Amino acid sequence: MNAHLIIPNHEVQATIELLLSEGWLSQTLRIHSDESGEFRLVPLDSDAPRNLPPPLDRYHVLDKEGKPTQNRKPSWQSALESLVGIEIVEEYESIWPASHEFIGDMMLLKIEEEVRIYEEQIVKSKMESHPHIRLVLEDRGVKGEFRVRDLRPMGLRINGRIKVNPGLDAVQTRVEVKESGQTIICDPAVAYYSSRLQTERIQNAIEAEELRAKIGSPIAVADPFCGVGPALAHLVNRPNLVGQILASDLNPEAISMLNENLRRWCGSDIAGSSQGKLQRNNDVWSGVQDARELAENPELLGRWNMMIINLPHSFAEFLPLLIPLMDATKPFVIRGRLVCRHDEITENHQQLLEQMPNSNAQVVLDPRRDYSPITSLCSVTIRNP
Ligand SMILES: C[S@@+](CC[C@H](N)C(=O)[O-])C[C@H]1O[C@@H](n2cnc3c(N)ncnc32)[C@H](O)[C@@H]1O
Asked: Mean pLDDT lowest for which of 65-74, 131-140, 169-178, 187-196?
Protein backbone atom coordinates (compact mmCIF):
# COMPACT_ATOMS: atom_id res chain seq x y z
CA MET A 1 0.00 0.00 0.00
CA ASN A 2 1.17 3.54 -0.75
CA ALA A 3 0.09 6.85 0.78
CA HIS A 4 -1.60 9.26 -1.67
CA LEU A 5 -2.81 12.81 -1.00
CA ILE A 6 -6.31 13.53 -2.33
CA ILE A 7 -6.02 16.95 -4.00
CA PRO A 8 -8.74 18.98 -5.79
CA ASN A 9 -7.74 19.30 -9.46
CA HIS A 10 -7.18 23.09 -9.32
CA GLU A 11 -4.72 22.76 -6.39
CA VAL A 12 -2.60 19.98 -7.89
CA GLN A 13 0.12 22.11 -9.52
CA ALA A 14 0.94 24.14 -6.39
CA THR A 15 0.93 20.98 -4.26
CA ILE A 16 3.28 19.13 -6.60
CA GLU A 17 5.75 22.05 -6.48
CA LEU A 18 5.67 22.00 -2.68
CA LEU A 19 6.09 18.22 -2.43
CA LEU A 20 8.96 18.32 -4.95
CA SER A 21 10.75 21.05 -3.00
CA GLU A 22 10.54 18.97 0.19
CA GLY A 23 11.48 15.70 -1.59
CA TRP A 24 8.13 14.14 -0.62
CA LEU A 25 6.71 13.30 -4.06
CA SER A 26 7.07 9.65 -5.09
CA GLN A 27 9.59 9.18 -7.91
CA THR A 28 8.32 5.72 -8.85
CA LEU A 29 4.52 6.09 -8.69
CA ARG A 30 2.37 8.35 -10.80
CA ILE A 31 -0.35 10.91 -10.11
CA HIS A 32 -3.79 9.77 -11.30
CA SER A 33 -7.45 10.77 -11.08
CA ASP A 34 -9.89 9.45 -8.50
CA GLU A 35 -13.15 7.88 -9.64
CA SER A 36 -15.11 11.16 -9.60
CA GLY A 37 -12.54 12.89 -11.83
CA GLU A 38 -12.60 15.93 -9.48
CA PHE A 39 -9.53 14.98 -7.47
CA ARG A 40 -6.03 13.74 -8.20
CA LEU A 41 -4.34 11.09 -6.08
CA VAL A 42 -0.77 12.27 -5.53
CA PRO A 43 1.60 9.49 -4.36
CA LEU A 44 3.97 10.34 -1.50
CA ASP A 45 7.57 9.24 -1.19
CA SER A 46 8.15 6.63 1.51
CA ASP A 47 10.34 9.18 3.35
CA ALA A 48 7.52 11.76 3.60
CA PRO A 49 6.29 12.26 7.19
CA ARG A 50 3.01 10.58 8.04
CA ASN A 51 1.72 13.78 9.64
CA LEU A 52 2.39 16.41 7.00
CA PRO A 53 2.80 20.03 8.13
CA PRO A 54 0.50 22.86 6.98
CA PRO A 55 -0.71 23.57 4.37
CA LEU A 56 -0.45 19.90 3.29
CA ASP A 57 -2.22 18.68 6.45
CA ARG A 58 -5.58 19.87 5.10
CA TYR A 59 -5.65 17.06 2.52
CA HIS A 60 -6.84 13.54 3.31
CA VAL A 61 -4.37 10.69 2.90
CA LEU A 62 -5.52 7.53 1.13
CA ASP A 63 -3.57 4.28 1.39
CA LYS A 64 -3.92 2.35 -1.85
CA GLU A 65 -1.85 0.34 -4.30
CA GLY A 66 0.15 2.90 -6.31
CA LYS A 67 0.39 3.00 -10.10
CA PRO A 68 4.00 2.80 -11.33
CA THR A 69 5.20 5.67 -13.54
CA GLN A 70 5.36 5.09 -17.24
CA ASN A 71 8.32 7.37 -17.31
CA ARG A 72 10.24 7.49 -20.56
CA LYS A 73 13.19 8.95 -18.68
CA PRO A 74 15.23 6.31 -16.83
CA SER A 75 15.13 6.49 -13.07
CA TRP A 76 18.58 7.44 -11.85
CA GLN A 77 18.94 4.00 -10.22
CA SER A 78 18.44 2.17 -13.52
CA ALA A 79 20.85 4.57 -15.24
CA LEU A 80 23.34 3.83 -12.45
CA GLU A 81 22.80 0.10 -12.87
CA SER A 82 23.70 0.32 -16.54
CA LEU A 83 26.95 2.14 -15.59
CA VAL A 84 28.17 0.09 -12.60
CA GLY A 85 26.24 -3.19 -12.86
CA ILE A 86 23.51 -4.68 -10.70
CA GLU A 87 25.94 -6.32 -8.20
CA ILE A 88 27.51 -2.98 -7.24
CA VAL A 89 24.09 -1.29 -7.03
CA GLU A 90 22.89 -4.02 -4.65
CA GLU A 91 26.11 -4.06 -2.60
CA TYR A 92 25.68 -0.40 -1.61
CA GLU A 93 21.88 -0.40 -1.73
CA SER A 94 21.21 1.82 1.31
CA ILE A 95 24.26 4.05 0.77
CA TRP A 96 23.68 5.61 -2.66
CA PRO A 97 22.56 9.28 -2.49
CA ALA A 98 18.82 8.60 -2.88
CA SER A 99 17.66 12.11 -1.99
CA HIS A 100 18.73 15.43 -3.42
CA GLU A 101 17.64 19.06 -3.32
CA PHE A 102 16.82 21.17 -6.39
CA ILE A 103 17.73 24.86 -6.41
CA GLY A 104 16.81 26.25 -9.82
CA ASP A 105 18.68 24.16 -12.40
CA MET A 106 21.13 22.84 -9.78
CA MET A 107 20.97 19.57 -7.83
CA LEU A 108 22.61 19.34 -4.39
CA LEU A 109 23.34 15.96 -2.86
CA LYS A 110 25.30 14.38 -0.03
CA ILE A 111 27.61 11.47 -0.82
CA GLU A 112 28.89 8.77 1.53
CA GLU A 113 32.61 7.89 1.46
CA GLU A 114 31.88 4.20 0.66
CA VAL A 115 30.48 5.12 -2.78
CA ARG A 116 32.79 8.03 -3.59
CA ILE A 117 34.72 5.94 -6.10
CA TYR A 118 31.49 5.79 -8.15
CA GLU A 119 31.03 9.57 -8.06
CA GLU A 120 31.28 9.99 -11.82
CA GLN A 121 28.64 7.32 -12.43
CA ILE A 122 26.37 8.84 -9.76
CA VAL A 123 26.58 12.26 -11.41
CA LYS A 124 25.97 10.89 -14.88
CA SER A 125 22.97 8.82 -13.81
CA LYS A 126 21.42 11.70 -11.83
CA MET A 127 21.87 14.06 -14.80
CA GLU A 128 20.53 11.52 -17.26
CA SER A 129 17.33 11.09 -15.29
CA HIS A 130 16.97 14.86 -14.68
CA PRO A 131 17.68 16.41 -18.09
CA HIS A 132 16.85 19.97 -16.90
CA ILE A 133 19.73 19.89 -14.38
CA ARG A 134 22.76 21.95 -15.42
CA LEU A 135 24.96 21.48 -12.36
CA VAL A 136 25.32 18.80 -9.66
CA LEU A 137 27.00 19.90 -6.42
CA GLU A 138 28.15 17.92 -3.43
CA ASP A 139 26.63 19.44 -0.28
CA ARG A 140 29.14 19.11 2.57
CA GLY A 141 26.89 20.83 5.11
CA VAL A 142 26.52 24.42 6.36
CA LYS A 143 29.58 26.14 7.81
CA GLY A 144 30.40 29.14 9.97
CA GLU A 145 28.37 32.07 11.24
CA PHE A 146 26.75 32.73 7.86
CA ARG A 147 25.53 29.09 7.67
CA VAL A 148 26.69 28.90 4.04
CA ARG A 149 26.90 25.46 2.49
CA ASP A 150 30.25 24.02 1.60
CA LEU A 151 29.56 23.09 -2.03
CA ARG A 152 31.79 21.20 -4.46
CA PRO A 153 30.81 20.99 -8.14
CA MET A 154 30.64 17.35 -9.23
CA GLY A 155 29.24 17.65 -12.73
CA LEU A 156 28.40 20.43 -15.21
CA ARG A 157 26.34 19.96 -18.37
CA ILE A 158 27.77 21.97 -21.27
CA ASN A 159 26.07 21.66 -24.67
CA GLY A 160 24.64 18.28 -23.73
CA ARG A 161 27.98 16.85 -22.51
CA ILE A 162 28.78 16.27 -18.85
CA LYS A 163 32.07 17.59 -17.47
CA VAL A 164 32.98 16.01 -14.13
CA ASN A 165 34.74 17.90 -11.34
CA PRO A 166 34.56 21.30 -13.07
CA GLY A 167 35.87 23.40 -10.13
CA LEU A 168 33.92 26.14 -8.32
CA ASP A 169 35.39 28.99 -10.38
CA ALA A 170 34.14 27.40 -13.61
CA VAL A 171 30.48 27.22 -12.55
CA GLN A 172 27.66 29.68 -12.00
CA THR A 173 25.83 29.04 -8.71
CA ARG A 174 23.72 32.21 -8.69
CA VAL A 175 20.22 31.26 -9.86
CA GLU A 176 16.62 32.43 -9.76
CA VAL A 177 14.03 30.19 -8.11
CA LYS A 178 10.25 30.51 -7.92
CA GLU A 179 8.37 30.26 -4.64
CA SER A 180 4.77 31.21 -4.09
CA GLY A 181 4.71 32.92 -7.50
CA GLN A 182 7.66 35.15 -6.55
CA THR A 183 11.14 35.00 -8.11
CA ILE A 184 14.01 34.79 -5.60
CA ILE A 185 17.64 35.44 -6.55
CA CYS A 186 19.93 33.18 -4.52
CA ASP A 187 23.42 31.73 -4.56
CA PRO A 188 23.80 28.85 -2.09
CA ALA A 189 27.61 28.98 -2.48
CA VAL A 190 27.77 32.41 -0.77
CA ALA A 191 24.53 32.83 1.25
CA TYR A 192 22.15 30.43 2.98
CA TYR A 193 19.14 29.29 0.97
CA SER A 194 17.20 26.05 1.17
CA SER A 195 14.27 25.10 -1.03
CA ARG A 196 13.27 22.57 1.63
CA LEU A 197 11.73 25.17 3.98
CA GLN A 198 8.72 26.12 1.87
CA THR A 199 6.18 24.51 4.17
CA GLU A 200 7.62 26.60 7.05
CA ARG A 201 7.35 29.72 4.95
CA ILE A 202 3.73 28.96 4.02
CA GLN A 203 2.97 28.42 7.71
CA ASN A 204 4.49 31.87 8.40
CA ALA A 205 2.10 33.36 5.85
CA ILE A 206 -0.91 31.59 7.43
CA GLU A 207 0.09 32.94 10.88
CA ALA A 208 0.64 36.41 9.40
CA GLU A 209 -2.86 36.44 7.85
CA GLU A 210 -4.41 35.43 11.18
CA LEU A 211 -2.44 38.12 13.01
CA ARG A 212 -3.49 40.81 10.55
CA ALA A 213 -7.13 39.81 11.07
CA LYS A 214 -6.65 40.18 14.85
CA ILE A 215 -4.85 43.52 14.63
CA GLY A 216 -7.11 44.87 11.90
CA SER A 217 -4.38 46.44 9.74
CA PRO A 218 -1.29 45.40 7.73
CA ILE A 219 1.41 44.05 10.03
CA ALA A 220 5.06 44.98 10.60
CA VAL A 221 7.33 41.97 10.01
CA ALA A 222 10.93 41.61 11.22
CA ASP A 223 13.24 38.95 9.77
CA PRO A 224 16.60 39.56 11.52
CA PHE A 225 18.24 36.42 10.03
CA CYS A 226 16.70 36.96 6.60
CA GLY A 227 19.38 35.53 4.30
CA VAL A 228 18.30 36.37 0.72
CA GLY A 229 14.73 36.88 1.99
CA PRO A 230 12.73 33.73 1.05
CA ALA A 231 10.41 34.02 4.07
CA LEU A 232 9.50 37.57 3.03
CA ALA A 233 8.82 36.42 -0.55
CA HIS A 234 5.79 34.52 0.76
CA LEU A 235 4.44 37.54 2.66
CA VAL A 236 4.92 40.53 0.36
CA ASN A 237 2.77 39.19 -2.48
CA ARG A 238 -0.35 38.83 -0.32
CA PRO A 239 -2.46 41.97 -0.67
CA ASN A 240 -2.44 44.33 2.35
CA LEU A 241 -0.71 41.79 4.56
CA VAL A 242 2.56 43.59 5.34
CA GLY A 243 2.96 47.27 6.22
CA GLN A 244 6.59 47.52 7.33
CA ILE A 245 9.57 45.20 6.90
CA LEU A 246 12.85 44.77 8.76
CA ALA A 247 15.18 42.45 6.79
CA SER A 248 18.71 42.11 8.17
CA ASP A 249 21.50 39.58 8.26
CA LEU A 250 25.18 39.38 9.16
CA ASN A 251 26.23 38.17 5.70
CA PRO A 252 26.86 41.06 3.21
CA GLU A 253 26.48 38.69 0.23
CA ALA A 254 23.02 37.67 1.46
CA ILE A 255 22.05 41.34 1.88
CA SER A 256 23.22 42.26 -1.60
CA MET A 257 20.85 39.60 -3.07
CA LEU A 258 18.12 40.47 -0.55
CA ASN A 259 18.13 44.10 -1.72
CA GLU A 260 17.85 42.97 -5.35
CA ASN A 261 14.95 40.72 -4.34
CA LEU A 262 13.22 43.49 -2.36
CA ARG A 263 13.54 45.84 -5.34
CA ARG A 264 11.70 43.28 -7.48
CA TRP A 265 9.01 42.63 -4.90
CA CYS A 266 8.45 46.04 -3.29
CA GLY A 267 9.57 48.60 -5.91
CA SER A 268 12.78 50.10 -7.15
CA ASP A 269 13.24 52.64 -4.33
CA ILE A 270 15.06 50.14 -2.07
CA ALA A 271 18.58 51.55 -2.15
CA GLY A 272 21.36 49.48 -0.62
CA SER A 273 23.71 51.56 1.57
CA SER A 274 27.49 51.54 1.30
CA GLN A 275 28.81 48.23 2.67
CA GLY A 276 25.17 47.16 2.84
CA LYS A 277 24.65 48.66 6.33
CA LEU A 278 21.13 48.73 7.72
CA GLN A 279 19.13 51.62 6.30
CA ARG A 280 15.53 52.69 5.98
CA ASN A 281 13.73 53.22 2.67
CA ASN A 282 10.19 54.34 3.55
CA ASP A 283 8.59 51.26 5.17
CA VAL A 284 11.51 48.90 4.56
CA TRP A 285 14.63 48.63 6.73
CA SER A 286 17.22 46.36 5.14
CA GLY A 287 20.93 45.75 5.50
CA VAL A 288 23.83 44.08 7.24
CA GLN A 289 23.30 44.03 10.99
CA ASP A 290 24.18 41.76 13.87
CA ALA A 291 20.84 40.76 15.41
CA ARG A 292 22.46 41.16 18.85
CA GLU A 293 22.62 44.92 18.22
CA LEU A 294 19.19 45.57 16.72
CA ALA A 295 17.65 46.55 20.07
CA GLU A 296 20.27 49.33 20.41
CA ASN A 297 18.44 51.22 17.64
CA PRO A 298 15.54 53.12 19.34
CA GLU A 299 13.70 53.44 16.00
CA LEU A 300 13.27 49.67 15.88
CA LEU A 301 12.05 49.11 19.45
CA GLY A 302 8.42 48.15 20.15
CA ARG A 303 7.53 48.31 16.44
CA TRP A 304 7.06 44.76 15.12
CA ASN A 305 4.01 42.46 15.11
CA MET A 306 5.67 39.36 13.66
CA MET A 307 9.24 38.12 13.85
CA ILE A 308 10.98 35.23 12.10
CA ILE A 309 13.97 33.65 13.85
CA ASN A 310 15.52 31.08 11.54
CA LEU A 311 18.74 30.29 13.40
CA PRO A 312 17.90 26.88 14.86
CA HIS A 313 20.93 26.42 17.15
CA SER A 314 20.63 29.87 18.70
CA PHE A 315 16.87 30.53 18.84
CA ALA A 316 16.76 30.48 22.64
CA GLU A 317 19.87 32.67 22.93
CA PHE A 318 18.50 35.39 20.61
CA LEU A 319 14.87 35.43 21.74
CA PRO A 320 15.37 37.60 24.88
CA LEU A 321 17.56 40.04 22.90
CA LEU A 322 14.85 40.45 20.24
CA ILE A 323 11.63 40.56 22.30
CA PRO A 324 12.09 44.33 23.00
CA LEU A 325 11.59 44.90 19.26
CA MET A 326 8.05 43.52 19.43
CA ASP A 327 5.02 45.79 19.82
CA ALA A 328 3.67 44.30 23.07
CA THR A 329 0.65 46.65 23.07
CA LYS A 330 -0.90 44.37 20.41
CA PRO A 331 -0.92 40.61 19.80
CA PHE A 332 2.37 39.47 18.29
CA VAL A 333 3.74 36.26 16.77
CA ILE A 334 7.25 34.82 16.65
CA ARG A 335 7.97 31.97 14.23
CA GLY A 336 11.17 30.04 13.81
CA ARG A 337 13.07 26.80 14.16
CA LEU A 338 14.89 25.37 17.14
CA VAL A 339 17.20 22.41 17.70
CA CYS A 340 16.69 20.77 21.09
CA ARG A 341 17.25 17.41 22.76
CA HIS A 342 14.33 14.97 22.45
CA ASP A 343 14.17 14.72 26.25
CA GLU A 344 14.24 18.50 26.80
CA ILE A 345 11.28 19.60 24.66
CA THR A 346 9.02 20.20 27.68
CA GLU A 347 11.78 22.11 29.47
CA ASN A 348 12.47 24.27 26.40
CA HIS A 349 8.76 24.92 26.00
CA GLN A 350 8.55 26.20 29.59
CA GLN A 351 11.67 28.38 29.21
CA LEU A 352 10.30 30.04 26.06
CA LEU A 353 6.95 30.64 27.76
CA GLU A 354 8.62 32.33 30.74
CA GLN A 355 10.23 34.88 28.44
CA MET A 356 6.93 36.14 27.04
CA PRO A 357 5.52 39.42 28.39
CA ASN A 358 2.01 37.94 28.66
CA SER A 359 1.56 34.87 30.87
CA ASN A 360 -1.25 33.69 28.57
CA ALA A 361 1.14 33.39 25.63
CA GLN A 362 0.95 30.18 23.62
CA VAL A 363 4.14 28.33 22.67
CA VAL A 364 3.98 25.49 20.13
CA LEU A 365 7.12 23.37 19.70
CA ASP A 366 6.53 20.93 16.87
CA PRO A 367 9.32 18.37 16.29
CA ARG A 368 9.59 18.04 12.49
CA ARG A 369 12.52 15.66 12.12
CA ASP A 370 15.54 14.23 13.92
CA TYR A 371 18.53 16.54 13.70
CA SER A 372 20.87 14.01 15.34
CA PRO A 373 20.24 10.77 17.25
CA ILE A 374 19.50 12.81 20.40
CA THR A 375 18.10 16.08 19.04
CA SER A 376 15.02 17.22 17.10
CA LEU A 377 14.58 20.12 14.71
CA CYS A 378 11.38 21.80 15.90
CA SER A 379 9.15 24.32 14.23
CA VAL A 380 8.34 27.08 16.78
CA THR A 381 5.27 29.28 16.95
CA ILE A 382 4.85 31.76 19.80
CA ARG A 383 1.63 33.74 19.99
CA ASN A 384 1.55 36.56 22.53
CA PRO A 385 -2.09 37.60 22.94
C1 LIG B 1 19.72 29.31 8.73
S2 LIG B 1 20.10 30.79 7.87
C3 LIG B 1 18.45 31.38 7.50
C4 LIG B 1 18.39 32.39 6.38
C5 LIG B 1 16.99 32.73 5.90
N6 LIG B 1 16.14 33.14 7.00
C7 LIG B 1 16.37 31.57 5.15
O8 LIG B 1 15.44 30.92 5.67
O9 LIG B 1 16.81 31.28 4.04
C10 LIG B 1 20.61 31.84 9.18
C11 LIG B 1 21.04 33.24 8.74
O12 LIG B 1 21.37 33.98 9.93
C13 LIG B 1 22.50 34.80 9.67
N14 LIG B 1 23.11 35.11 10.97
C15 LIG B 1 23.85 34.32 11.77
N16 LIG B 1 24.20 34.97 12.91
C17 LIG B 1 23.63 36.20 12.82
C18 LIG B 1 23.60 37.33 13.68
N19 LIG B 1 24.25 37.33 14.85
N20 LIG B 1 22.91 38.41 13.28
C21 LIG B 1 22.27 38.44 12.08
N22 LIG B 1 22.28 37.40 11.22
C23 LIG B 1 22.93 36.30 11.59
C24 LIG B 1 23.36 33.98 8.71
O25 LIG B 1 24.20 34.81 7.95
C26 LIG B 1 22.28 33.26 7.87
O27 LIG B 1 22.00 33.97 6.69
From this structure: 65-74
Host H or E run for residue 221 = strand 219-223
Q: What's the confidence (pLDDT) of residue 75? A: 81
CA terminus-to-terminus distance, the chain: 44
Query: Which pairing describes strands 32-33 and 39-43: parallel, antiparallel, or unpaired?
Result: antiparallel
For a pLDDT cut of 90, what percent of the chain falls above it? 68
**159 and 222 housed in the same domain:** no
Q: Is 198 in the pocket of ligand 1 (CB under 6 A)?
A: no
The overall pTM is greater than 0.85: yes
Q: Report, as an integer, the average pLDDT of 227-239.
A: 95
- Indicate the residue among 173, 201, 235 that finishes a domain: 173
* Alpha carbon of 218 to ligand 1 centroid (Å): 25
How many residues would you count in the chain?
Answer: 385
For ligand 1, whether the C-beta of 307 sits within 6 Å is: no
Q: Are 275 and 288 in contact (CB under 8 A)?
A: yes
Q: Which atom of ligand 1 is nearest to the CA of 308?
A: 6
Q: Are residues 312 and 269 in the same domain?
A: yes
Report how far ligand 1's centroid is from the alpha carbon of 192 (Å): 7
Distance 320 CA to ligand 1 centre (A): 17
Q: To the nearest whole number, what is the mean pLDDT of the chain?
A: 92
HSE-up of residue 34 (Cα within 13 Å, Cβ side): 19
Cβ–ligand 1 contact at 108 (below 6 Å) = no
- For 16, the domain range is 2-64
The pLDDT score that the predictor gives to residue 81 is: 93
